[in-house]
Amino acid sequence: MTALLLATTSAGKLREIREVLAGLAIEVRALADYPSIVEPEETGRTFEENARAKALYYAAATLSLVVADDSGLEIDALDRAPGVYSARFGADEVPTYPEKFALIDRMLEQRHAPESAARFACALALARPGEILFEARGTIEGHITSPPRGTNGFGYDPIFFYPPFGCTLAEVPTDRKSSVSHRGQAFRQLRTFLQQWQNDGQ
After folding, report:
1. Taking the model in full, what pTM does it have?
2. 2 CA to centre of own chain
3. DSSP 131-180
4. What's the rounded mean pLDDT across residues 69-91?
5. 87, 154 in Cβ contact below 8 A?
6. Which of 3, 32, 92, 128 is the least buried, fewest Cβ under 10 Å from its Cβ?
7. Contact criterion met (CB below 8 Å) for 120 and 71
8. Alpha-carbon distance 202 to 194, whole Å?
9. What is the average pLDDT across 132-154?
10. For residue 202, what pLDDT is reported?
11. Residue 168: half-sphere exposure toward Cβ, Cα within 13 Å
């Protein structure tokens, strides 16, 4: 059984990732199992840079196998903001997601693009101390919608309309969302890698 630390404090991410990795000979651990470790600052300019930095940081701190991801929402009419700042977007003035949604609405109205094209992107990195073992990326295309709709999902899901489903990602069950989501895409690639890695006796 391989121990794998999922380097996130997001309950929503943990739930999604555990579902994707279910059935593997993997003992999934969470950051809550390591309460003394201080969370690193995310200073990368891309999702990939942040994912690599977090994976290497936590691998060194725990001497274990770690997967970290960085993901966010890119809105074309806002020059792909909030991007890598998605979790911290407007944090001082608008700390809750409903407030972030309202801020995005105002910004898009100012640019006369209330239903701007947008995408979710996710980059992940798998590391052991001192070494990146695997990287993957996933994206899903859609557009912004208002008002927010749906009570499933988390983060920006209620304002992200996915045309093939005809609804927001917050209006579908987690397993259906994961079948197409940016994070689901990236972690299914990780699942394939881990299966082969274990088969090779690593």
Report:
1. 0.90
2. 23
3. EEEEEEEEEEEEEE-SS---SSS-TTGGGEEETTTTEEGGGS-HHHHHTT
4. 93
5. no
6. 92
7. yes
8. 9
9. 95
10. 61
11. 20
% the chain with pLDDT above 90:
70
Phi/psi at 186 (5° precision): -65, -40
Tokens for 79? 């020059």
**Whole-angstrom distance, CA of residue 51 vs CA of residue 66:** 11
Helix and strand counts by DSSP (H, E) for the chain: 5, 8
Query: How many domains, in total, are found in the chain?
Result: 1
Backbone φ/ψ region at 105: left (φ over 0), alpha (ψ -120 to 50), beta = alpha
Strand partners, 30: 6
What average pLDDT does this structure show over 120-125?
Answer: 97
How many residues does the structure list for the chain?
202
Which domain covers residue 115, as residue numbers?
2-199
Structure confidence at residue 162 (pLDDT): 98
Query: How do residues 26-49 score in pLDDT, each as one tens digit?
Result: 888 999 889 899 989 888 999 999
The set of catalytic residues is: 70
For residue 173, how many other CB atoms are within 10 A of its CB?
10
How far, rounded to the nearest angstrom, does the alpha carbon of residue 200 sit from its chain's CA centroid?
28
CATH of residue 6's domain is 3.90.950.10
